[in-house]
Specification:
The chain is an all-beta fold. It has one helix and 23 strands. Strands 1, 5, 6, 20, 21 and 23 form a six-stranded antiparallel β-sheet that branches. The chain has a five-stranded antiparallel β-sheet with strand order 8-11-16-13-14, with no helix packed on it. The longest helix is centred in the last third of the chain and has 4 residues. The two termini are 26 Å apart.
Length: 281
């Protein structure tokens, strides 16, 4: 059991109860049978062990299960291609370790790196995500699907950013080939010479990049989070959830739980950082 049961203290309270997840973790119970990661306000990626709530100064992160099918997720050194130089463990990564690799694409001419991801369902939305920053000056990098030829571009700065790209997978193949390229394969102002640090590659089913899942030699699944906050429902009339970018207020009957608040599942804020719960009389 984690935190406290609000039923033990509610009789002493007159106004609303405000649970601030950016500061504390008053959960009655919590479960997730795998590791999970979350970011703080500064952008650092932190790892939390099984059954440990992912709570940072951004709030509490709860997500459904997800799978990263991109093996060796923090090793760009195993990617292949042409016109490139890859230097392993060249910079401090968002996880605080010297895990970021340097990727140099030497233009003019064809220059790219790629990695095969599988298995990928056919004709399905898939999302590739990774962190990148420019070694010296901001510039554009190209993204390309080696299976479908779909392209895009992103502007890298000298600060770490997480980039994501959602495409429809091939209708005839169960693999995908994600490429990072120079301007030889992608337009839109992409640089001829690309020089970036990269880390944390992830390929997952769906149209949203979820929290980072580290992989080694095989795909890895992050199990779903579920938490519960116990308090005497009959004493209170409404519960309001506040998360990064949104808010939702429900009556206790709409919350649909007789003894407290169940957190997780299909609630509107799942996948975002839950900052506060306000419980009103």
């Amino acid at each position: 059991m984690l935190g406290l049961s609000l039923s033990t203290t509610s009789s002493q309270r007159r106004g609303p109860i405000v649970i601030d997840f950016t500061r504390s973790a008053p959960l009655t119970w919590f479960t997730r049978s795998s590791n999970g990661t979350a970011q703080d306000v500064a952008g650092q990626v932190m790892t939390f062990g099984p059954d440990v709530p992912r709570m940072t100064d951004r709030g509490l992160l709860l997500e459904p299960s997800g799978t990263n099918v991109q093996v060796e997720s923090d090793q760009a050194s195993v990617w292949v291609g042409e016109g490139n130089t890859i230097t392993e463990d060249a910079a401090l990564a968002p996880n605080g370790y010297m895990d970021a690799d340097r990727v140099q694409l030497h233009g003019p001419g064809v220059a790219y790196i790629y990695r095969v991801s599988d298995p990928i369902p056919q004709s399905t939305a898939i999302t590739c995500s990774f962190w990148a920053k420019a070694v010296s000056a901001p510039h554009k990098i190209g993204l390309r699907s080696g299976q479908t030829g779909v392209t895009s571009n992103r502007t890298v700065t000298t600060d770490w950013q997480r980039f994501s790209w959602t495409i429809m997978s091939s209708a005839v193949s169960d693999t995908e080939v994600f490429q990072i390229t120079n301007n030889s394969l992608v337009g839109g102002g992409v640089a001829a010479i690309v020089d970036v640090h990269v880390w944390g590659f992830q390929v997952e089913i769906g149209s949203v990049a979820t929290s980072y899942i580290h992989t080694d030699t095989g795909s890895v699944t992050r199990d779903a989070d579920e938490a519960y906050l116990d308090f005497p429902v009959s004493t209170y009339s409404r519960v309001t959830f506040t998360w990064e970018g949104g808010q939702e207020s429900l009556t206790m009957s709409e919350n649909n739980n007789a003894t407290g608040v169940l957190l997780g599942g299909s609630q509107s804020w799942v996948g975002s950082y839950l900052q506060r719960i306000t419980i009103e009389r």
